[in-house]
Write a structure and sequence with these properties.
Blueprint lengths: L1 E5 L3 H12 L3 E5 L7 H4 L4 E2 L3 H7 E6 L4 H9 L13 E4 L5 H11 L5 E4 L2 E2 L1 H7 L3 E5 L2 H14 L2 E6 L3 H29 L4 H8 L12 H4 L13 H17 L5 H15 L12 H7 L8 H9 L2
Parallel strand pairs: 1-2, 1-4, 2-3, 4-5, 5-6, 8-9
Antiparallel strand pairs: 7-8
Helix pairs in contact: 1-6, 1-7, 8-11, 8-13, 11-12
């Protein structure tokens, strides 16, 4: 059986490569044919359109930036649904909207096509190394059937529940981690404004109870170095994720005061034209408000702190 993969960007490239290394007969598609060359030279087949890809494949993966991109790949001109036969499985690895994944599932089910929402967590490095979580929502039997292929891409694939469950889990994860680093930036700013050097302060709190849980490591790669360009994950995309998470809160009547404040900071950064900077770039607003200079630890200093952990 051939495996289709649409979306060979920072995340998709690594996952598709691991599928191919794991023995998948890949059919690939992307807006840029150049992005597919590293796969076609290793034997993958290029598909001109999603519909062409779907006609050849029993399982299709998509890894795309926004819910609109996912819908367009599926239902736009020459989209996946034009080529999918009954029994085909579509697994969307994107961070999507709960409403959109449920709508897609409902539209495909009468055609006998299975849809699994399967967002991932681990970043481009995890996608490349296979140290990746994939959280899946949909029919358990379909998930079990696809598990051998998921295990080619990730060391932590997990079935969460019915359709939409994987997306909710991903939005919880992204909203929580985004809020945590926002609070951390605020507290670090207070410590620096009170007279401490940022490097020793950050190093010290990492040895406390919460720090030993490795909650603070991610902030070192960007915020502590004021290193926002080029992005690992674009600010506009984390804003999309935060907005989707807040929508889930509204849908279920859950107050999300702190998370709403975080989203408003991200929106302010977007309004400054920072959408293509790194997802942590909005944290610099806190330093600006506190009247302190950006922290500029060297990459070597950060690496030393990590190595001493």
């Amino acid at each position: 059986m051939k495996i289709g993969f649409i979306g060979l960007g920072k995340m998709g490239r690594g996952m598709a490569a691991n599928l191919q290394t794991g023995g998948a007969a890949l059919v690939v598609a992307d807006l840029s044919r150049t992005a597919a060359e590293e796969f076609t030279v290793r034997g993958a087949t290029w598909a001109e359109t999603p519909a062409d890809l779907a006609r050849d494949c029993g399982i299709v993966f998509t890894s795309l930036p926004t819910p609109a991109d996912v819908r367009n790949a599926g239902f736009g001109p020459r989209g996946l649904v034009e080529g999918m036969a009954p029994g085909t499985v579509w697994l969307d690895l994107s961070t999507n909207s709960v409403d959109v994944v449920r709508q897609i599932h409902a539209e495909l089910a009468p055609k006998g096509i299975h849809f699994i929402d399967a967002p991932v967590s681990g970043g481009p490095a995890g996608a490349a190394s296979g140290q990746l979580a994939i959280w899946c929502g949909g029919e358990r039997e379909v998930y079990d059937r696809c598990l051998p292929w998921l295990e080619k891409m990730a060391d932590q694939p997990r079935y969460i529940g019915d359709i939409g469950a994987g997306t909710i889990a991903k939005l919880v994860n992204n909203m929580a981690s985004t809020a945590i680093i926002s609070v951390l930036a605020e507290a670090l700013s207070m410590g620096v404004k009170a007279g401490l050097e940022p490097g020793p302060l950050w190093e010290a709190i990492r040895t406390g109870a919460a720090g030993r849980m490795r909650m603070y490591d991610n902030i070192g790669r960007r915020f502590m170095q004021a290193k926002y360009d080029p992005p690992s994950f674009a600010l506009r995309l984390i804003h999309k994720d935060a907005s989707l998470a807040l929508q889930v809160g509204r849908d279920f009547g859950v107050p999300m005061r702190l998370c709403t404040l975080v989203e408003s900071d991200i929106r302010e950064a977007l309004n400054r034209g920072w959408g293509e900077r790194d997802s942590q770039s909005y944290l610099a607003l806190q330093q600006e408000r506190a009247g302190i200079e950006p922290f500029r630890l060297s990459a070597e200093a950060v690496a030393r702190i990590y190595a001493e952990s």
